[in-house]
Amino acid sequence: MSKSSDSLYWLDGDGIEQNDDFIKREILEYNKNGGTIYVGSDSMMNCTTCSFAAVIAFHNRSKKIAKYYYKKLKKQEVKYKDVKLKILEEVSIAISTAQFVLKICPNANIELHIDISTEKTNLTSKFYSLVKGWVDGVGFKLKVKPDSWASSSIADWHTK
Protein backbone atom coordinates (compact mmCIF):
# COMPACT_ATOMS: atom_id res chain seq x y z
CA MET A 1 0.00 0.00 0.00
CA SER A 2 2.92 2.35 0.52
CA LYS A 3 3.07 3.37 -3.18
CA SER A 4 -0.40 4.91 -3.25
CA SER A 5 -0.69 6.07 0.33
CA ASP A 6 -1.10 9.71 1.26
CA SER A 7 0.81 9.00 4.44
CA LEU A 8 4.52 8.29 4.02
CA TYR A 9 4.54 6.81 7.48
CA TRP A 10 2.44 4.44 9.47
CA LEU A 11 0.64 6.08 12.36
CA ASP A 12 0.15 4.45 15.74
CA GLY A 13 -3.10 4.61 17.68
CA ASP A 14 -2.12 8.03 19.04
CA GLY A 15 -1.42 9.37 15.54
CA ILE A 16 2.36 9.37 15.99
CA GLU A 17 4.29 8.66 12.79
CA GLN A 18 6.30 5.45 12.61
CA ASN A 19 8.46 4.52 9.62
CA ASP A 20 8.49 1.17 7.82
CA ASP A 21 11.62 0.03 9.72
CA PHE A 22 9.83 0.54 13.03
CA ILE A 23 6.77 -1.37 11.76
CA LYS A 24 9.02 -4.18 10.50
CA ARG A 25 10.59 -4.54 13.96
CA GLU A 26 7.13 -4.52 15.58
CA ILE A 27 5.87 -7.24 13.21
CA LEU A 28 8.92 -9.44 13.75
CA GLU A 29 8.81 -9.03 17.54
CA TYR A 30 5.07 -9.74 17.76
CA ASN A 31 5.36 -12.73 15.41
CA LYS A 32 8.13 -14.22 17.57
CA ASN A 33 5.50 -14.67 20.27
CA GLY A 34 3.26 -16.60 17.87
CA GLY A 35 0.45 -14.05 17.69
CA THR A 36 -2.01 -13.56 14.86
CA ILE A 37 -1.57 -10.34 12.91
CA TYR A 38 -4.89 -8.75 12.01
CA VAL A 39 -5.09 -6.71 8.82
CA GLY A 40 -8.10 -4.71 7.76
CA SER A 41 -9.27 -1.75 5.74
CA ASP A 42 -12.33 0.42 5.44
CA SER A 43 -13.46 3.50 3.55
CA MET A 44 -15.82 6.43 3.68
CA MET A 45 -17.18 8.35 0.71
CA ASN A 46 -17.57 12.10 1.12
CA CYS A 47 -18.84 13.92 -2.00
CA THR A 48 -16.18 13.13 -4.62
CA THR A 49 -13.46 11.92 -2.25
CA CYS A 50 -13.15 8.47 -0.78
CA SER A 51 -10.98 8.09 2.33
CA PHE A 52 -9.41 4.68 2.86
CA ALA A 53 -7.60 3.37 5.92
CA ALA A 54 -5.45 0.24 6.23
CA VAL A 55 -4.69 -1.30 9.62
CA ILE A 56 -2.13 -3.73 11.02
CA ALA A 57 -3.24 -4.78 14.50
CA PHE A 58 -1.67 -6.90 17.22
CA HIS A 59 -3.92 -8.35 19.88
CA ASN A 60 -3.19 -11.04 22.42
CA ARG A 61 -5.21 -11.06 25.66
CA SER A 62 -2.97 -13.47 27.53
CA LYS A 63 0.14 -11.38 26.80
CA LYS A 64 -1.75 -8.08 27.32
CA ILE A 65 -0.92 -6.82 23.83
CA ALA A 66 -3.32 -4.50 22.04
CA LYS A 67 -1.90 -2.03 19.53
CA TYR A 68 -2.27 -1.07 15.93
CA TYR A 69 -0.82 0.99 13.12
CA TYR A 70 -2.63 2.55 10.20
CA LYS A 71 -2.17 4.43 6.94
CA LYS A 72 -4.70 6.67 5.26
CA LEU A 73 -5.20 7.60 1.66
CA LYS A 74 -7.73 9.68 -0.21
CA LYS A 75 -8.84 9.13 -3.76
CA GLN A 76 -10.66 11.86 -5.65
CA GLU A 77 -12.85 9.51 -7.63
CA VAL A 78 -16.64 9.43 -7.81
CA LYS A 79 -16.50 5.81 -8.99
CA TYR A 80 -16.31 4.79 -5.32
CA LYS A 81 -19.94 5.84 -4.91
CA ASP A 82 -20.52 2.39 -6.42
CA VAL A 83 -20.47 0.16 -3.32
CA LYS A 84 -19.01 -2.81 -5.19
CA LEU A 85 -16.03 -0.78 -6.46
CA LYS A 86 -15.47 0.68 -3.01
CA ILE A 87 -15.54 -2.77 -1.34
CA LEU A 88 -13.18 -4.20 -3.96
CA GLU A 89 -10.73 -1.34 -3.37
CA GLU A 90 -10.91 -2.01 0.39
CA VAL A 91 -10.12 -5.68 -0.23
CA SER A 92 -7.25 -4.76 -2.56
CA ILE A 93 -5.77 -2.43 0.07
CA ALA A 94 -6.14 -5.07 2.81
CA ILE A 95 -4.49 -7.73 0.65
CA SER A 96 -1.58 -5.48 -0.29
CA THR A 97 -1.12 -4.57 3.38
CA ALA A 98 -1.13 -8.27 4.32
CA GLN A 99 1.44 -8.93 1.58
CA PHE A 100 3.58 -6.12 3.05
CA VAL A 101 3.48 -8.05 6.36
CA LEU A 102 4.37 -11.34 4.62
CA LYS A 103 7.41 -9.78 2.91
CA ILE A 104 8.71 -8.88 6.36
CA CYS A 105 7.70 -12.10 8.02
CA PRO A 106 6.86 -14.96 5.61
CA ASN A 107 5.62 -17.24 8.39
CA ALA A 108 3.23 -14.68 9.90
CA ASN A 109 -0.24 -15.88 10.85
CA ILE A 110 -2.45 -13.24 9.21
CA GLU A 111 -6.18 -12.79 9.48
CA LEU A 112 -7.80 -10.44 6.95
CA HIS A 113 -10.72 -8.39 8.28
CA ILE A 114 -13.12 -7.09 5.64
CA ASP A 115 -16.06 -4.85 6.50
CA ILE A 116 -18.79 -6.85 4.80
CA SER A 117 -21.54 -9.09 6.12
CA THR A 118 -23.09 -12.43 5.31
CA GLU A 119 -26.46 -11.21 6.61
CA LYS A 120 -28.85 -10.94 3.66
CA THR A 121 -30.26 -7.69 5.07
CA ASN A 122 -26.86 -6.01 4.65
CA LEU A 123 -26.09 -4.46 1.25
CA THR A 124 -22.56 -5.89 1.29
CA SER A 125 -23.67 -9.52 1.68
CA LYS A 126 -23.96 -9.92 -2.10
CA PHE A 127 -20.18 -9.45 -2.36
CA TYR A 128 -19.30 -12.13 0.17
CA SER A 129 -18.65 -14.97 -2.32
CA LEU A 130 -16.50 -12.73 -4.53
CA VAL A 131 -14.46 -11.44 -1.59
CA LYS A 132 -14.14 -14.89 0.02
CA GLY A 133 -12.86 -16.38 -3.25
CA TRP A 134 -10.34 -13.57 -3.71
CA VAL A 135 -9.03 -13.71 -0.13
CA ASP A 136 -8.88 -17.53 -0.14
CA GLY A 137 -7.15 -17.41 -3.54
CA VAL A 138 -4.30 -15.30 -2.18
CA GLY A 139 -4.00 -17.52 0.89
CA PHE A 140 -5.37 -15.48 3.78
CA LYS A 141 -7.96 -16.28 6.44
CA LEU A 142 -11.06 -14.09 6.17
CA LYS A 143 -13.19 -12.56 8.91
CA VAL A 144 -16.32 -10.51 8.17
CA LYS A 145 -18.91 -8.76 10.35
CA PRO A 146 -19.41 -9.13 13.23
CA ASP A 147 -15.88 -10.57 13.68
CA SER A 148 -13.96 -8.12 11.46
CA TRP A 149 -13.05 -5.66 14.20
CA ALA A 150 -9.77 -4.50 12.56
CA SER A 151 -11.80 -3.11 9.66
CA SER A 152 -15.24 -2.37 11.10
CA SER A 153 -13.89 -0.69 14.25
CA ILE A 154 -10.28 0.47 13.91
CA ALA A 155 -10.04 1.23 10.17
CA ASP A 156 -13.56 2.67 10.20
CA TRP A 157 -12.53 5.13 12.91
CA HIS A 158 -9.59 6.36 10.81
CA THR A 159 -11.61 6.94 7.62
CA LYS A 160 -13.41 9.88 9.22
Protein model, in words:
This protein has 160 residues and is α/β, with parallel strands linked by helices. The chain has a single domain (10-157), classed as 2-Layer Sandwich (Nucleotidyltransferase, domain 5), CATH 3.30.420. Helices cover 34% and strands 30% of the residues. The protein has a seven-stranded mixed beta sheet, with helices on both faces. The protein is globular. It starts with 9 loop residues before the first strand and ends with a helix.
Q: What oligomerization state is this entry in?
A: single chain
Shape: globular
Strand content range: 25-35%
Which consecutive residue ranges, at least 5 long each, have pLDDT under 50?
1-5
Chart the SSEs and their pairings.
Layout: E1 10-12, E2 17-18, H1 20-32, E3 36-46, E4 49-60, E5 65-75, H2 83-104, E6 109-114, H3 128-137, E7 141-143, H4 149-157
Q: Notable features of this structure?
A:
disordered N terminus; Nucleotidyltransferase, domain 5
Could you write a compact summary of the structure shown?
The protein is built from four helices and seven strands. The chain has 160 residues and is an alpha/beta fold.
